[in-house]
Each structure stands twice: as structure tokens, then as C-alpha cells.
Amino acid sequence: MAVVDEADAPVREERQVAENVVLDVRDLRMRYGTTDVLTGVNFIARTGEVVALLGPNGAGKTTTIEILEGFRMRSAGDLSVLGVDPARGDENWRARLGVVLQSWRDHGRWRVRELLEHLGLYYGPYSTDRILRPWNADELIEVVGLTEHAHKKISRLSGGQRRRLDVAIGIVGRPELLFLDEPTAGFDPEARREFHDVVHRLADENTTILLTTHDLDEAEKLADRILILAGGTIIADGSADELARRMSTEAEVKWTVDGQRFVHSTLDATGFVRELFVKHDTAVADLEVRRASLEDVYMVMVKEFESGRRDAAIHEFEGVHP
Ligand code: ADP
Questions:
Q1: Hey, whose CA ends up nearest to atom 21 of ligand 1?
Q2: Which residue's CA is the closest to the ligand 1 atom numbered 27?
Q3: How far is CA 54 from CA 126, 177, 192, 211, 284, in A?
Q4: Which of 62, 63, 179, 212 for mutating ligand 1's site (highest number of atoms within 8 Å of CB)?
Q5: Secondary structure (DSSP) of 107-151
Q6: Ligand 1 touching residue 58 (CB < 6 A)
Q7: Is 61 in the pocket of ligand 1 (CB under 6 A)?
Q8: Where are the domains of the chain?
Q9: 113: how many CB neighbours lie within 10 A of its CB?
Q10: CA of 57 to the centre of ligand 1 (A)
């Protein structure tokens, strides 16, 4: 374990409360056998923030989330999740978390409303008070868009409806912090959009959300902040816009003059467009400026990182074997 100065703890706690820090991850490390999967992960999340954790397969996203949920013991690092070290979280702490696991396969004979009402009982009596949990079953069913299917057996739900039920199960206790691991895998576009509405609604109610996804478009739409995990550390942390600006990737400008189409890639789209109007004035039509998408930025960052690491590895190898 990393050595933490105990004298710092009260100061840190005060800062967390003052700055609404819900998740505080410092130098998180995880080793499986002799393999270091996480080599020093650092990030924070504040109340009501939606944070997307992205990264190539095997980067350690699920490992990170499982450690924060208290399901997996870390090798080292200093963590605070809702003010508690997840390795020491008790039932009360757990009740404040929501976890959406991969699809809910049991209880196929239960009906949607029945199951949600039953699970809600674990969190105490229903109340309209935000502090007291859980959700009222009918309200929750409406939020996740299952009203029409409330009395259906779970085994009869479609894949997308089933996933919405997974989300309902994850949030039934009205969690302050929600972990969503690949929440929309297998959704059709309509179910995906409805699910995004649910996430926005939860964030509006100040639920903090940490999600992993392979869908970069989804991350861009949902997340206030993006974290890219690669090589065991966070290689980028910022809003989708900030990451795009930091990469200073080129924008694509498209336009027509007298019906003829043109395309030009430039780092300075505004300057280029200004010039275009100086030159062609009102003859410019169908103007479009497409900035780098999160996907473009992600690809560049992960590739650069990987080639940098490969170079470092080659360098190291050559050092050993000149
Ligand atoms: P991601 O979610 O980003 O795809 P994971 O956290 O699932 O990544 O896995 C990260 C790495 O750790 C992978 O190489 C995986 O094989 C390895 N790993 C995950 N769980 C275990 C485990 N229980 N024992 C050994 N290795 C594991």
C-alpha cells in the first residue's frame, strides 16, 4: 500500500466536502500475479458529474470499477468513494452506491414491477424525500421506459428492455454514485437514446455517474468528463472539447462555390473560413465545419501512446542488448 500521511486525512476530508468530491482516486495500482494492470491511476469526480472511463480492451477499466465498488482489493493506492475507503465500506456505504452489472439473468419468472418493488424493500420504506430511499416502483419503471411492460415476466423482455431493467435494478436505491459498466451494449438506437435520457435525468438529480463504454459517440453525448485509461494510467482527462483542443486535430471544412464542392483540412478553421469569405463572398454556399470527434481524438491518443510505449520498450531492449 502507498504510505498515506494520516495527519493529512482530516484536511483532505474537509477539501472533499467543500469541493463536492465524490470519488478521489490517487495512485491506484493493481497487479495480477506478476502483471501490473494499473500502475498509478489518478482522478476525481464531483457530485452530479458524468464521467466516462474509456480505454482499449484489457486496459483495466473493469478492474478499476470493481475496486471502487469494493468488489476487488487493490494492490496499492489511496481511495475515497463517498468519503469511505472502498476496502472498508459497510452496508450503509453500499446502500449509497448503485451498480449495474451485466444483464440480470435470474428471476425470469418474476414480473418487472414485482421485482423492483421487492428489491426496493431492502432500502427501507418508500418516501418522496430525496434522502430517504428507494424509488417508488412505478416512477422508476417510468423513468427507465418500462411502463408498458411493468407486468410482463422478465423472461419475456427483449434484450433492450432487459438492459433497462438492469439499470432500474442498479438505481432502485436512489444511489448517490452509480457505476455503469458498458450500459448500452446490445441496445438498438431507440433504446440507447432513451437510456441517455435516463442518465441525464439522474445527473440532473445530482447522481454522480462513472461509466465505461466502447461507444465513443455515447461517451461524447453523455459525459461531462472523459478519462482515457491506457498502459495502466490515465493518459487524458477533460471534456470532449478540451481533449479535442489539446490534440489540436485538424477540422474539415466543406463548401461549394458555383455548385462546385470543396473540402479542406485545417488547424485554423475560423481563419480559413474568414479567408474564404474574403475571396468568394456571397458565392460561398453549403458551408460545413466538422471538428475532430471524440473518436478521432481517442484514436490519435491511444495510437500515439502505444507507439510511444513501443519506442520506449525498444529503447529499453536495445539498452539491455546493445
Ligand atoms: P478492461 O475492462 O479495460 O477490458 P479488465 O479490467 O477487464 O480490462 O482487465 C485488465 C487486465 O487484467 C486484462 O489483461 C485481464 O486479462 C487482466 N485480469 C482481469 N481480471 C483478472 C484476474 N482476476 N486475474 C488475472 N488477471 C486478470
A1: 32
A2: 32
A3: 36, 18, 18, 9, 39
A4: 63
A5: -TTSBHHHHHHHHHGGG-S--SSSSS----HHHHHHHTT-GGGTT
A6: yes
A7: yes
A8: 243-320
A9: 18
A10: 9
CB proximity list for 11: less than 8 A, separation 6 or greater = none
- pLDDT tens track of the chain, all 322 residues? 444 555 666 666 776 666 789 999 999 999 999 999 999 999 999 999 999 999 999 999 999 999 999 989 999 999 999 999 999 988 888 888 888 865 555 666 778 888 788 777 766 655 555 455 678 889 889 888 899 999 999 889 887 788 888 888 888 888 899 999 888 877 778 878 888 888 898 888 889 999 998 888 899 999 999 999 999 999 999 998 888 777 767 888 999 999 999 999 998 899 999 999 999 999 999 999 988 788 888 888 888 888 877 666 666 555 555 4
Query: And the C-alpha cell for 85?
Result: 475507503
- Cβ of 34 less than 6 Å from ligand 1: no
H-helix or E-strand containing 303? helix 294-320
CA of 80 to the centre of ligand 1 (A): 22
Pairing mode of beta strands 251-257, 260-266: antiparallel
